[in-house]
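Hi support team,

I've been running sequence recovery on a batch of backbones for a student project. Most finish fine, but this one hangs at about 90% for roughly twenty minutes before it completes. I'm not sure whether the input is malformed or the queue is just slow. I've pasted the structure tokens below so you can try to reproduce it. Let me know if you need the job ID as well.

Thanks,
M.K.
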């Protein structure tokens, strides 16, 4: 009888001990989960502190969908200002490979959207309200949203209204230019030719994703007007300088295609500028015109003679 009582008491003590251990584990696990949730919940606050300029971050309320649990995640507004054939398409695919970025493409290539200042600002409102739906849209959980805008798509004509809008809505500007304007000229002429020639099985492509396609397109060698070449290069320089002048009062950074090609750490600077968590950015696009320019210009001797001894002589050299 005494032995049976002792065994019973021992079983009760063991049961209480095991229960208390399990209770502590459950409590500890619940606390860990709560702490994890707190970390997630504080991520937007941390981003505000990280940016150190909280007024740049916005909390859009789109009318076309509900941001749901991401409603408290701040969004930075940006615009990529560039010229055709300056690497902006490649650069935008790099940005859009980031899980938190929505760059909505060359929206103002459609003439109706840039008819006047009013139509431009209305379109911008839709973009920054997250109501512009495109294949690049991350919708609810975007941390940075914007567009790509070419200088010749109504931007320069309505620069006063756009600059005022950018400042009022705290839009961050990324200027993307090309140092070697002669290479840009080759790319522009070759792309214009392919719009009609359609060298890739009867299809025009401004950007390609394979070396084979790039080789086919690069076989066309444009003839460059050497008589107007110096004036043409000067005009391109002046246009970029004007854009910098018009939007100098905005928060901005200046990028060059050649620097991005040589040094991919520049992409870290871009992500920091946009207040993004750093990720490895990737693109499937393949460069079309590789190697020395002498391989891509039909009247190379004329061009070489025209630029030698001028401020543009460096354009003749391989730059990356």
């Amino acid at each position: 009888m005494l032995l049976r009582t002792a065994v019973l008491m021992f079983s009760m003590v063991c049961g209480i001990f095991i229960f208390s251990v399990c209770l502590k584990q459950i409590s500890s696990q619940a606390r860990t989960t709560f702490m994890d949730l707190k970390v997630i919940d504080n991520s937007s606050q941390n981003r505000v502190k990280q940016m150190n300029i909280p007024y740049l971050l916005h909390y859009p309320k789109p009318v076309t969908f509900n941001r749901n649990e991401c409603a408290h995640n701040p969004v930075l507004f940006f615009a990529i200002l560039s010229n055709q054939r300056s690497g902006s398409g490649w650069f935008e695919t790099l940005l859009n490979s980031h899980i938190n970025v929505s760059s909505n493409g060359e929206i103002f290539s459609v003439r109706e959207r840039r008819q006047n200042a009013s139509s431009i600002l209305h379109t911008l409102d839709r973009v920054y309200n997250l109501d512009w739906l495109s294949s690049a849209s991350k919708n609810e959980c975007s941390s940075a949203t914007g567009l790509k805008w070419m200088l010749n798509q109504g931007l320069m004509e309505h620069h006063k209204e756009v600059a005022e809008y950018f400042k009022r809505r705290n839009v961050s500007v990324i200027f993307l230019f090309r140092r070697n304007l002669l290479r840009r000229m080759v790319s522009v002429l070759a792309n214009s030719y392919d719009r009609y020639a359609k060298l890739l099985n009867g299809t025009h492509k401004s950007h390609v994703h394979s070396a084979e396609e790039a080789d086919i397109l690069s076989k066309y060698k444009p003839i460059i007007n050497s008589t107007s070449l110096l004036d043409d290069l000067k005009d391109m320089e002046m246009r970029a300088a004007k854009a910098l002048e018009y939007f100098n009062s905005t928060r901005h950074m200046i990028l060059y295609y050649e620097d991005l090609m040589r040094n991919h750490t520049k992409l870290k600077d871009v992500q920091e500028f946009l207040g993004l968590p750093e990720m490895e950015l990737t693109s499937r696009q393949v460069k079309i015109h590789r190697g020395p320019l002498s391989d891509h210009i039909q009247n190379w001797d004329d061009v070489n003679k025209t630029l030698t001894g001028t401020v543009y002589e460096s354009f003749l050299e391989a730059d990356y």
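--
Follow-up from support: It reproduced on our side and the slowdown came from queue contention, not your input. Strands lie at 57-58, 75-82, 101-103, 144-150, 172-177, 252-256. No action needed from you.
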